[in-house]
Specification:
Elements: H1 22-33, H2 39-49, H3 56-65, H4 75-89, H5 103-120, H6 122-136, E1 140-145, E2 155-160, E3 165-167, E4 182-184
Helix pairs in contact: 4-6
Length: about 190
């Protein structure tokens, strides 16, 4: 048996047109490392929504003093009202034509698009991302190919947790179209990977 053929090959080092150079990669990782400290504040905001407003230290101190933990959650009902309004006013995605001669094509594409929207779970993913937008100010949705070949639709949509995404904080546009990078970091079990 030839073990040499089984060894992985690293291949050529990518040039600037093929990928990132080492200084570009180091600069990007440095930017990610020194991002503003917003993640702790967002975790605290979600804790407030989930009625976890008191820290364990404060709960212990209140217990020693004989004070029962009284929590009145004022933020959750307000956010739930916004989420209910979003669910109630949600509409199907729509394609419109520029002229009268494209109406038939637009109607056919609308039928296909609405089928894809239902089968991929896009409505639920967008609603889940909207909930995190209401709670902490940012939400992400991933559209990916379905890995299970026995599923009836080839695509699926899922909300992505905010702590998995790192983006260019120097971006000036709200849609991040001028961002230098957008990175997703996620832990996975080696068997799953």
């Amino acid at each position: 048996m030839n073990t040499r053929a089984m060894e992985p090959s690293i291949g050529p080092i990518p040039s600037l047109q093929d990928g990132l150079t080492l200084p570009q990669m180091e600069s990007m990782l440095s930017d990610i490392r020194f991002q503003p400290k917003w993640r702790e504040e967002s975790d605290k905001a979600v804790d407030y929504y989930d009625s976890h407003q008191l820290t364990q230290e404060r709960l212990d101190r209140m217990s020693r003093l004989g004070i029962p933990p009284l929590i009145t959650n004022l933020i959750a009902p307000a956010i739930n009202a916004i989420l209910g309004m979003e669910a109630k006013t949600r509409t199907d995605w729509r394609i419109t034509s520029d002229g009268l001669d494209g109406d038939d094509v637009a109607d056919a594409l609308n039928e296909k698009l609405n089928h894809a929207e239902r089968q991929s779970g896009a409505d639920k993913a967008c609603s889940d991302a909207f909930k995190t937008q209401c709670c902490v100010g940012i939400g992400w949705v991933e559209v990916m190919r379905e890995t299970d070949p026995f599923k009836p639709f080839p695509y699926r949509c899922e909300a992505v947790h905010r702590n998995e995404i790192f983006w260019d904080f120097l971006s000036k546009k709200p849609d991040l179209s001028d961002a230098r990078y957008l990175v997703r970091r996620r832990w996975a079990d080696i068997d799953q990977a």
